[in-house]
Design a protein that fits this description.
The chain is mostly helical. It contains 11 helices and 2 strands.
Length: 269
Amino acid sequence: DLLAQAERAWVWAAADTTDAYRNAGVAYAALSWPRTLFWAAAELWEGTGAERYRRHLEEHREDPQIWRSTWKDAAIIPLLHWSVAKVQRPGLPAGMQDAAKAAILAAASGARNSIERPSYRLSARPDGAGGWGSLAGGAEPGTLLLLAWRLTGDAAWLDAASLGADYQLGCNPLGRSFISRIGAHPPERPQLRPWLYDADRRPSPGVPIYGPGGGPKAMRDPYPAEVPPWRCYQDNASSSTIHSEFDVVRQQGMAAFYAMLWGAAAGGK
């Protein structure tokens, strides 16, 4: 029984308070073990109603190990709020779900506002510069917008999320997709292991590369300063790692994002 296995795993993890537990994690440590345990407690409270999970949520609702973040891991915080906001079982601490929903909507408002700034409707920095993956579009702001749509039913959130997908799939200054084997002019040389190319040297499908990059001082590769950063892109895994790299975290996020969009198009929520 999967639920019973999940409960055994949670009890085991909750008893481990070593430094390795506190410092390690998954998703390049963005989802630390304390965060993972909190998220799992919300899921298990929903699934079982066992008091230990509700008590864990209450005790850690303001735990800095869970909620303090930097730019490197800020994208995970709304997902932690979502684990609480979506719970249907009554009995969570007073005000906890309302606070989680408000936090999601506040973050989503920032993402939607930033989409309105550039001509190509991409959630980006005000100066239009980008680093690893921030000019590729898609999941990071898009998933947040879809969570807001699921909370409110307001189609404006869904529309904003769709714009990020449009950009990633070809509605961008280069007129090309940034996901292998999908869309128009997809990347042909993402930075993959050799066995992830087929006999015709085509990459595995569905790899979301980092795409264009280049602020005023970095990540431009061979491009001179006068070339706009949204056009600083090379489809070359050997000499343009920044543009052609990808990571498992981003790929998982993209899979979830496009699955949610597909579900929305099919009339689900």
